[in-house]
Amino acid sequence: MLIDLHCDTIYSLWNDPEKGSLLSSSLSVDRKKLIDGGVLGQCFALFVPMHEHVPEKHIEKTPWEILEELHDIFIRETAAAGIPQMRKAADLENGSLHAILTTEEGASIEGDISRLSTLRDWGVKIFGLTWNYENELGYPNSSDPMVMAEGLKEKGIEAVEECGRLGIIVDVSHLSDGGFMDAVRFAHGPVIATHSDARAVTDVSRNLADEELRLLADRGGVTGLNLCPAFLHDEKALSEDDAESNISDMVRHVMHIYRTAGEDVLAIGTDFDGIYGRLEIPSSDKLFLLRDALGKEGIPESVLDKMWYGNALRVFRDAERS
Ligand SMILES: [Zn+2]
């Protein structure tokens, strides 16, 4: 069983309908691969692109309009593929595949905190405060220390508090370090990083510092292991397509996170369909290879069960209670 905290498949289907559907596609995530991978819960992020990342054909649309379109695609695709949406964590108890709705890039609500209630009504379980740009809520991770130190804006703090009231989990992946600290300070419920690795292993601003990993653990949160080549190692590839995502690097990150912050913070957030290169694990039906490698390093099966689904499930349950 597996809960994957992040993929960009809905965005990919929105941006390029030629890719296929959730039933069958050339992408990393489709129904067959999820079933073959024993996936219990697949988080589907509604990722709203900003600035130069907005595709030409969508340039006239507002962030909120794009979010609504992405949501329509999520509804249509999951229905066509026969994948029910998780409304409550208990939905996962029957052991069958569910789609979990999440969002990435807090600019989508255009600074209107009341829209978080709409997201709650859609069944959104996780709200990502920023992507890689400053927005109404805060600042992104950055190699510029001034930006990295910036905390959440007033509206960002309001959003974190409102998420707590609504039972939506706050996602700090992509956020500045200052924003991370504010999110932990102001959150009512668990705070998670859906798809971030360890900065002590690969020194990039998208990864989490040891202190942050420990804070997530203290707050009952998790960090999902991201399979993106650029976060797993320092080697520079000639092109994005040549970059390698290797199991040996994933093992180094997991072992570091495990030793630094303990077994309860481990989780998986593949970032499938948002990452490129030579992926040793190209889809969830191959994640057993990572599990085998971690077992060989001496991580007990009980801990791997927590990493694969137990910890994520605990966070979804805790968010309903807080
Ligand atoms: Zn991301």
Describe the structure.
This protein has 322 residues and is α/β, with parallel strands linked by helices. The protein has helices at 9-15, 31-36, 63-80, 115-122, 145-149, 154-166, 177-186, 210-218, 229-232, 247-261, 288-296, 301-321, and strands at residues 2-4, 39-47, 98-104, 126-128, 169-171, 191-192, 223-225, 244-245, 266-268, 278-279. The protein has a single domain (2-321), classed as Alpha-Beta Barrel (TIM Barrel). The protein is 39% helix and 11% strand. The strands form three sheets. Strands 1-2-3-4-5-6 form a six-stranded parallel sheet, with helices on both faces. A two-stranded parallel ribbon has the order 7-9. Helix 3 (63-80) links the parallel strand 2 and strand 3. Helix 1 (9-15) packs across helix 3 (63-80) and helix 10 packs across helix 11 (288-296). The protein is globular and about 50 Å long. The two termini are 26 Å apart. Zinc ion (ZN) is lined by residues 104, 173-174, 195, 274.
The CATH top-level class label:
Alpha Beta
Proportion of residues in extended strands: 5-15%
Number of strands: 10
Give the rounded overall mean pLDDT.
97
Number of helices: 12
CATH topology: TIM Barrel
CATH structural architecture? Alpha-Beta Barrel
How would you write the strand order of the largest sheet?
1-2-3-4-5-6
Task: Provide a brief overview of the structure.
The chain has one domain: TIM Barrel (Alpha-Beta Barrel).
